[in-house]
Amino acid sequence: MSDFDAITITEEAVTALKSFQLPEDLAFGKVMAPVMIECTYNQGTWSEAKLVPYRKLTLDPTCKVLHYAQEIFEGLKGYHTNGAGPFLFRHEENMKRFNLSAERMAMPPVPEKVFNQGVEAITSYCAHLIPKKSGDSLYIRPFMFATENNLGIKPSEHFSFLIVASPSQAYFSSGSVKVLVEREAVRACPGGVGHAKTGGNYAASLLSMINAKKKGYDQVLWLDAVTKSNIEEMSGMNFFAVYGDKIVTPSLTETILNGITRKSIIELARHQGIEVEETTMKIDDLLADIKSGKCTEAFACGTAVIITPVDTLGLASGETFPLQHEQGPISKQLRQALLDIQEGTGDDPFGWRKELTPKV
Ligand SMILES: *Cc1c(COP(=O)(O)O)cnc(C)c1O
User: Fold this and answer.
1) What is the rounded distance in angstroms from the CA atom of residue 47 to the CA atom of residue 29?
2) Distance of alpha carbon 259 from alpha carbon 97, whole angstroms
């Protein structure tokens, strides 16, 4: 019955898919597909991985994840906007990063086949639920958390690995974002967990996000924790500045999440003859360069937001640094080139996408 030798497709899941009505207004990450992949780990052994109906979880109040935040996740998309497909984009990179996050958080690696085929199976079985407008997608969320029940501060010996999926519209409804430079709080410090996709990093960022929203901003730009002078990234996106026909981004450190979108943009830009520089980026230099007009565009990038232009950087003092271009030509060109690969409307010179067969 299945192309997926590592995933058992249950009849109940297929029934749930057949009777599901997709609402009209999807937004992003709000409507969940009626199925999920589920698999558990108990003292060294992984259970069979299954596609099952989406359901609520039952947790003991002492479940370790609720107290000590032993948890990791990934975010990736299935695309089905062009008649062909559905397509996945570099999902094996997500698998590798997931298992690096697992190692840092003292969790067992998920078997590669279970992760890869789990993502493929949920995408194939939900193909008919993926909205078809360019920029829309099936947002796929693999995650793992500690399920051992007791309050001792020790690594858990029991875990759940799940993959859920959300038919979604574009992440930002407006075309660009306003970004507040965060000079007080920090997101990640050397020796910490900033390079892992673990929930605590996001919990730690939310207070700054609230303060930024109060001042009229959409996002926070984090600086390094030690000198508070070098740009790192946003809470869920990497950062680029454009200088004429060159793009510049902070070099990767252990306090920056190694974005697959970031990495792909670097390769794609070089392929298109755009110069790319990975370097230490001083926030004061960037602000001066925006003022003088040397820096012409800036953008945020990540799976969810693709490439989203930054229209203004601002400081808590109220000083603002509007970019010349609210949606500059380089951001636009790279966004379209990336989407063409992801959505299957253009060539795929790097072999980044995988086409799947719809199953329901
Ligand atoms: C997920 C994430 C990114 C973007 O990574 P992609 O692989 O491009 O989606 C960037 N920064 C942080 C903190 C993230 O969590």
Assistant:
1) 28
2) 9
Q: Between 3.20.10.10, 3.90.180.10, 3.40.47.10, 3.40.1410.10, what CATH number should domain 177-342 receive?
A: 3.20.10.10
263 CA → ligand 1 middle, Å = 11
Residue with CA nearest ligand 1 atom 2: 236
Contact 3/113 with Cβ under 8 angstroms? no
Alpha-helix runs per DSSP H in 152-307: 199-203, 206-214, 260-271, 283-292
Instruction: Say what percent of the chain tops pLDDT 70.
Output: 99
Ligand 1 lined by 194 (C-beta under 6 Å): no
Beta carbons of 22 and 162 less than 8 angstroms apart? no
Q: Is the pTM of this model over 0.85?
A: yes
Q: Which residue has the tokens 């900033």?
A: 194
Q: Please check the confidence at residue 50 and state whether its pLDDT lies above 70.
A: yes
Both tokens of residue 309?
């232009």
